[in-house]
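quick one, 91 residues, struct below
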Amino acid sequence: MGGRWTPLVVREFLRRGQATYSELSAALPALSDKVLSDRLAQLTSAGVIERHRTPGWPPRVRYILTSQGRALEPVVRSMWEWGAARRDALG
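---
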């Protein structure tokens, strides 16, 4: 699990618990569709989120944070605090 933007995607799941692709896309407008799709696939294969498809038309997919994903909260929080302190120190 790595790459640019991955911590921001994880942060959104920590805030929401679950989200659709369109909700994530709206929350993270700087990400291209390809990058967001790649990060969701990566996080799903790593067991951080689960992909749930609702039957019917149109097909609906909801991504849900797993317990393994929730365990990342202290790591993401530490990164956020470090970044905020660094930003404040630089002015």
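Helices lie at 6-16, 21-27, 33-45, 67-70, 73-90.
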